[in-house]
Amino acid sequence: MTSAWTRPHSHPSPSPPTILSDSDSDADGFSSAAEIHRHSDLSNSIFKPYLEFSGHSGADLSKIQSFLTSSSAGALSCLICLERIKPSDPTWSCSSLCYAVFHLICMQSWARQASDLAAARAATRLPISPATASDTALWNCPKCRSEYPKSHIPKTYLCFCGKVENPPNDPWVLPHSCGEVCERPLKRNCGHHCLLLCHPGPCPSCPKLVKVRCFCGCIEDVRRCGFKEFSCNNPCSKVLDCGVHRCTEVCHRGACPPCRTRGVYACQCGTVKEEKECWDRVFQCDHPCEKKLGCGKHVCERGCHSGECGECPLKGKRTCPCGKRVYEGMPCDASVQLCGATCDKMLPCGYHRCPERCHRGQCVETCRVVVKKSCRCGSLKKDVPCYQDLACERKCQRMRDCGRHACKRRCCDGDCPPCSEICGRRLRCKNHKCPSPCHRGPCAPCPIMVTISCACGETRFEVPCGIEMDQKPPRCPKPCPITPLCRHASNCKPHKCHYGACHPCRLPCAKEYQCGHTCKLRCHGAKPPPNLEFTLKPKKKKIIQQSEGVPGTPCPPCPELEWRSCVGKHIGADRMMVCSDKSQFSCENLCGNPLPCGNHYCTKTCHALENQLRESEPCEDCYLPCQQEREPACPHSCPQPCHPGDCLPCKVLIKRSCHCGAMVHVFECIYYNSLSAKGQETVRSCGGPCHRKLPNCTHLCPETCHPGQCTNAEKCCKKVTVRCKCQTLKKEWVCQDVQAAYHHMGCHPKDTPKNQFGIGLIPCNSDCKSKVQVVESELQLRKSRVTEVQDQDTEKSVRKRRKRRERVLESKETSKLQKIISGAKRLLLFVFILIILVAATYYGYKGLLWLSDWMNEVDERRQRYSGIK
Question: Which residues have C-beta within 8 Å of that of residue 798, sequence separation ≥ 6?
């Protein structure tokens, strides 16, 4: 066994305890650094003696470390008053389970109230004197509910180890500590004492080395006294309780388990054999023994058992069932006779005896003797059978021990049970309700401790529930575990653990642009996911989601300035522009490049040329009409836009009328303008008569179409009819004679209208006068006829007016008759309405009388019906 055993792993090398922060901010000021240094020195001074022996800091020191953290952060609070415990305040700490620290004054008040309440409760419930109840009263720790006698009510302010009264307040010593070695006996009564300086909380495990054996006793090893119990991991091999087999379990603490080896075993009477485990080999079957007793007449009525069955129970001295008559010498198989006397055995009630004659078997269980009983509360008395309990329906109105609720138990005997309801009052923490049964006095403080930790969870402390809202997270000296995601991760200075987002990187970006310049802004790269913000009580419905990292923003365009010329490359038009601004600019000058036409220059504002940039703008197209002079010259401009070289021949069709205006000729401009003046006159002639009106008469020119004025206008040989003024006489003259007559009269023939040409050239005679008289007489006759027709029309219109007036008079006479008829109708309607109103009044009155009689009759019937009843 020794060869199979391997030595346990050695303990790790000594390491200093974790440095805990005592601040609630992430600033790096001088004061915070001093506090952390002082806190570290205080921890080292307390744990140094223990670390020299144990070599490592285990879970035993967590309670003390938590107290140090909460004390340095100002979070040490009294659980009773929920006020902060100052280093100069007298305190008392529980020494049983929780080791919580309280104000001495608060604890004294709490203990007195609790012990007085317990004494009053014991005096009312137990049959003891008030002095005895006061001496034996107990009080509980507000947190762990450990019980202390009344004699242990704290009276003096002691340090944690209990050696010094009223320990002084030293800033370099743990508050409420004497600063000396604790020297309290360690747990498990190992005989050693605590090596730490005076400290709160439980003493750690004993760190001293001792030589001990494993659980089975096979291996001996040197172990820490606090962890001296160990297993060698070999089979136990101890002899089990059966005395036959050995323990097959690995070396273990405590007694060996029952033997599990299976086998076939017989019961105690030997009737049944079953397969059972070795530890359960002794068992009893379900069959009765039924072996013959010593008398040979009866069998054993006992169950399965070991050993002899014994003598027959009916052998020897026997009595009747009631025990009054004794029979001796009777055989065991003979039945005992009844004595005939009253049974007189005590009934189960304890007050009355059995009234039956001597009988076999049990007496009646229910005593039916009628007695006068009173209920438990004494409010009811009644004759009932003895076996029946009497209880009234009256509810007890006494207050229970809680002083808040009535008993309300039916027929209570005065000993009201404790209140079964939950207290439910809001505790001083204002976060929870009292879960204890309803009680007198103040509720116990909330026993819940709230853990406040840093973001990484390495530094933490506990505070009583109710004051956590005033606390801030502890300052942790550990580095922040979040790795920067920007390009300066290797150059960023590490910072301490914190809540929320990390500080932004303050280094310049220094990323190079494509143009060759570098970004001079502060780092704007990606940011890692931030820690959650410090919250003590997140809302239940609020789902806390892990926030994501913030992606970095791209570098802004290059802001450097440089000189840049305009797109037209004009001299003296350079400007200072931002490097990242790739846009081109144009100056205020005109382009000035020659256009493709070769005749004009580009008048656009400065623009990029096609051979310089991709996004170039061509020079404007020359949309001016061609301004060159054609050869031969013509009045038409060239229809093409401005173009280099000679213009095309003019193909415009021009219209030219003939000389007389009777016909219009159409020629091409190039053809007509290329002719000489004489040729143009020849081409324009239509070859027909002139047909132009002569200037001095109404006749047309008889010559062939010719240019210019018609010649020989005064030598017209056409015949003209000449009349006198009254147009009675007429003659035919030659036109030239007529023109000569007009000239002789002193007027020009051109001024004479066409319809008056030739009239008045011949003088009138006597025939003309007689004709004039006849015409005048005819005119007078026409006038007289016209007046007669007008008089007849006026008479007809007067007759029509008279007929209309007569009709109006007749209509007026008929309207009077209609008035009489309408008046009669109105009178009849009024009479009819009056008759209806009188009838309605009469029958309404009759109806009211009938209704009154009916109601009187109903009342009489009701009175008769009530009198019959």
Answer: none
Q: How far apart are CA 519 and CA 129, in angstroms?
A: 92
pLDDT digits (tens, 9 = 90+) for 364-396: 888 888 889 888 888 888 888 888 888 888 888
> Within a domain: residue 725?
yes
Same domain, 633 and 674: yes
pLDDT tens-digit series, residues 192-246: 888 888 888 888 888 888 899 999 888 888 888 888 888 998 999 898 888 888 8
Are 401 and 415 in contact by the 8 Å Cβ rule? The answer is no
Query: Which of 598, 677, 595, 669 has the alpha carbon at shortest distance from 638?
Result: 669
Of the candidates 226, 227, 247, 244, the residue with the CA atom closest to the CA atom of residue 236: 247
Give helix then strand counts, H and E, for the chain. 8, 22
For position 713, what pLDDT does the model report? 66
CA distance 101 to 531: 33
- Cα 72 from Cα 422, distance rounded (Å): 38
Angle between helix axes 62-72 and 30-54 (nearest 10 degrees) is 160
Amino acid at 444: A
- Count of domains observed in the chain: 3
Q: CB–CB of 520/507 below 8 Å?
A: no
Looking at the domain assignment, is residue 746 inside a domain?
yes
Contact of 560 with 517, CB cutoff 8 Å: yes
- Determine contact, residues 491/515, Cβ cutoff 8 Å: no
Tell me the average pLDDT across 788-798.
66
Domain boundary among 703, 732, 756: 756
pLDDT at residue 49 tops 70: no
What are the residues facing 730 on neighbouring strands? 723
Among the listed residues 180, 193, 181, the one whose alpha carbon sits nearest the alpha carbon of residue 226: 193
Residue 27 has a pLDDT of 37
pTM assigned to the model? 0.46
Q: Which long-range contacts (CB under 8 A, 24 or more apart) does 631-637 make?
A: 632/670, 632/673, 632/674, 633/673, 634/669, 634/670, 634/673, 636/669
680 with 717, same domain: the answer is: no
- C-alpha span between 188 and 204 (Å, rounded): 12
Q: Is residue 729 part of a domain?
A: yes
Per the structure, the complete domain to which residue 96 belongs is given by 91-156
Query: What is the phi-psi region of residue 510: left when phi exceeds 0, alpha when psi lies from -120 to 50, beta otherwise?
Result: left
Dist CA 73 CA 472 (whole Å): 8
pLDDT of residue 251: 92
Cβ-contact 378, 368 below 8 angstroms: no
d(CA 436, CA 420): 10
580, 585, 581: which is closest to 516 by C-alpha? 580
Give just the sign of the alpha carbon dihedral 602, 604, 610, 612. positive
Q: Among 2-16, 506-520, 708-722, 810-824, whose mean pLDDT is lowest?
A: 2-16
The pair of structure tokens assigned to 665 is 């000729």
Residue positions counted in the chain: 869
Assess if residue 672 is contained within a domain: yes
